[in-house]
Design a protein that fits this description.
Blueprint: H1 15-31, H2 34-37, E1 38-42, E2 48-50, E3 55-60, E4 66-70, E5 73-84, E6 93-100, E7 108-114, E8 123-129, E9 138-140, E10 151-158, E11 161-166, E12 169-175, E13 191-198, E14 218-233, E15 236-237, H3 261-274, E16 275-278, H4 292-295, H5 297-305
The chain binds 2-acetamido-2-deoxy-beta-D-glucopyranose (3 copies).
One 2-acetamido-2-deoxy-beta-D-glucopyranose is lined by residues 239, 242, 246, 249-250.
Length: 306
């Protein structure tokens, strides 16, 4: 995240003042300014950044959806965003929030929120693409109404693993299984993308329930973006230089972070209670055998330990 090069001069600054200045800077860094981090990319005025960069809204009506993307490309990071999803009858709508690189052998890390009839649960759909290959869906219901308030959706992406979390509870871990021949996203920088669009041919109960345009415009909101991440620019990572500022070089340890036993317990709770689809248990879909990362004995062993 662009650190505001603070002009705290080297002349005698009282330690207390310095502490308060630094505290202010870190709060500002957390709150972010969505204008600095994102560009609205489509939707002809349906996407807006409001309140001096504190809030971003996407909307969808019968003629168009809308979307935005990050100005930065990232190669690894711990990326948080708060979302408040389309409320009421959101059936047929999809709010996608994901990281993706470019091209046919792209990598991608997806959150997609599939709307529903009023009172019926959203589906949080997740997927991971590596070198153009996805088909790694896991889906969840949520333990709260994602339309009533903002909730934090996070991606921890480091060379060993990708962890999807909701309000700090990990729901999915995709481990690096290169040792058994499964490509892992680690060479292609990705941008953050988000969009709100109509997908009523598949989104709600498999396409049975269509978007009711009487409820348009549909709106989803975003706030409090925070990227503790390695940004990529002109072929160089902000983390590769030992001399870069400590904010971008893993001062928080995310570059090697893994799930401790408390987090593993939380993930097991989320998966036991809220997972509604897991490609790794869909034997019918993979008659030639489950994908390698699902049957990696090392990983299953680790999963059994959960
Ligand atoms: C919508 O509600 C139905 C009925 O509760 C549920 O089976 C389904 O998972 C929900 N979500 C979507 C996106 O279809
Ligand atoms: C982070 O920065 C510190 C001090 O600048 C340096 O000692 C350390 O090696 C860096 N770590 C990484 C992972 O680059
Ligand atoms: C199994 O996991 C351990 C610890 O995560 C790792 O050190 C080891 O290389 C793995 N073995 C294989 C065959 O993947």
């Amino acid at each position: 995240m662009a650190s505001s090069s603070s002009s705290v001069s080297s002349t005698s600054v009282s330690p207390m003042l310095l502490v308060s200045v630094l505290a202010t800077i870190s709060v500002v860094a957390f709150a972010g300014n969505l204008n600095q981090d994102f560009d609205i990319t489509w939707g002809d005025g349906r996407a807006k950044i409001l309140n001096n960069g504190d809030l971003l809204t996407l909307s969808l009506d019968k003629s168009s959806g809308s979307g935005f993307q990050s100005k930065n490309e990232y190669l690894f990071g711990k990326i948080d965003m708060q979302l408040k999803l389309v409320s009421g009858n959101s059936a047929g709508t999809v709010t996608a929030y994901y990281l993706s690189s470019q091209g046919t052998t792209h990598d991608e890390i997806d959150f997609e929120f599939l709307g529903n009839l009023t009172g019926d649960p959203y589906i949080l759909h997740t997927n991971v693409f590596s070198q153009g290959k996805g088909n790694r869906e896991q889906q969840f219901h949520l333990w709260f109404d994602p339309t009533a308030d903002f909730h934090t959706y996070s991606i921890l992406w480091n060379p060993q693993r990708i962890i999807f979390s909701v309000d700090g509870t990990p729901i999915r871990e995709f481990k690096n299984s290169e040792a058994i021949g499964v490509p892992f996203p680690k060479n292609q920088p990705m941008r953050i993308y988000s969009s709100l669009w109509n997908a009523d041919d598949w989104a709600t109960r498999g396409g049975l329930i269509k978007t009711d345009w009487a409820n348009a415009p549909f709106t989803a909101s975003y706030q409090k973006f925070n990227a503790d991440a390695c940004t990529w620019s002109s072929g160089t990572s902000s983390c590769s230089s030992q001399t870069t500022s400590s904010t971008s070089n893993n001062s928080a340890g995310w570059l090697s972070q893994e799930l401790d036993s408390t987090s593993q317990d939380k993930m097991k709770w989320a998966q036991d209670n809220y997972m509604i689809y897991n490609y790794c248990t869909d034997a019918k879909r993979f008659p030639q055998g489950l994908p390698a990362e699902c049957t990696n004995t090392n990983i299953s062993y680790n999963a059994m330990k959960l």
